[in-house]
Specification:
Blueprint lengths: L10 E9 L5 E10 L4 E5 L6 H8 L7 E6 L2 E2 L4 H6 L1 E4 L11 H11 L6 H10 L15 H13 L5 E5 L7 H16 L3 E6 L2 H7 L2 E6 L2 E7 H8 L2 E7 L15 E3 L5 E6 L8 H10 L4 E8 L2 H10 L3
Length: 314
């Protein structure tokens, strides 16, 4: 029998901390492995440490303690090799306003010591639907197009890893979904994607795995599907034939919620338990004389899980 070991992570973070001169501890002993070729979403509120973590891996911020390796290269001892494998799309729309799209993306490639390659620049611009804007000055572009230019700059040196720090902040819904398609295409071509986002639906739509960070601590890292299976709850919404003012006393023991208009009763249950209690609840509901015309089952979203994790005392 041949036993194969799992592939080595493309990024390995071990016991990483960061304390600023003010005494503020932005990161507290972060240990995390990123798998090659995955889309990893890092979720957390403002000030959680997301950008600090990305900045350390990208060599912009120096850690207080701990180690980071990128494709086997230590970011401190072998900075150039590690950084050459990374593309970074920052939150801020910092672009050279008076340069053309073609010039600024080409210049970014040169910063990494890469030889000129117009074919690569053309491919990147076409993939990001920027080809028809190649001769436009950055200052003339919309916010969504400027965001695409930032991605193009990050991809100009053909990195294996792409960090997206709030990539769709300030982008309208249509452009956001278009950019999701671009990111999926990059992943299909072998690029490892790490994104931070405030849009929970972005992580739910795109991520293979999810990490939740708050106050500098990594609360958990889990496959998205497994996380939703473990922590997700289900709800059964019953549309009542006649609205009511309050939940009957006979049903007080059940986890029921009444809508503001009194027309819908919602029963929340843990689908991991062997007995959901639905049958008993429906029987007791019938005994009260209440009738319902429709019912709908819903599973909690990643946003519900995220909020619940942050609200759990630690």
């Amino acid at each position: 029998m041949i036993v194969t070991s799992p592939p080595s992570p493309v990024i390995s973070i071990q016991n990483l901390t960061k304390t600023y001169s003010s005494g503020f501890q932005a990161l507290k002993s972060i240990t995390l492995d990123i798998r090659r070729g995955e889309i990893f979403a890092l979720l957390g509120p403002n000030g959680a440490g997301k950008t600090t973590l990305i900045s350390i891996v990208c060599g912009i911020v120096t850690p207080s303690t701990g180690t980071v390796s990128v494709d086997g290269h230590d970011i401190a001892r072998d900075y150039r090799a590690a950084r050459a494998r990374i593309g970074l799309v920052p939150q801020e729309l910092t672009t050279d306003a008076f340069e053309t799209v073609w010039d600024t993306v080409s210049f970014s490639r040169g910063l990494f010591g890469k030889a000129k390659n117009p074919k690569v620049i053309e491919r990147v611009l076409r993939d990001l639907h920027l080809w028809d804007k190649k001769d436009n000055k950055i200052m003339t572009l919309s916010g969504g197009m400027k965001r695409r230019v930032l991605i193009a700059k990050a991809l100009s040196h053909e990195p294996e890893i792409l960090f997206l720090d709030e990539p769709t902040a300030g982008v309208d819904v249509e452009l956001r979904r278009d950019m999701w398609r671009v990111v999926r295409g990059l992943c299909d071509n072998g690029v490892t994607i790490i994104l931070t986002t405030h849009y929970i639906e972005e992580a739910e739509e795109m991520a293979d795995r999810v990490g939740v960070i708050t106050k500098g601590e990594l609360l958990l890292v889990e496959d998205k599907a497994v996380l939703m299976q473990k922590l997700g709850k289900k709800q059964l919404a019953l549309k009542l034939s006649t609205p009511i003012d309050r939940i009957p006393t006979a049903l007080a023991e059940y986890p029921l919620a009444l809508s503001s208009d009194g027309a819908i009763l919602t029963y929340t249950y843990d689908k991991q338990t062997e007995r959901t209690g639905i049958d008993t609840m429906l029987n007791d509901l019938g005994r009260t004389g209440l009738r319902f015309t429709d019912l709908e089952s819903q599973q909690s979203s990643l946003e519900d899980i995220f909020v619940g994790l942050l609200e759990t005392p630690r």
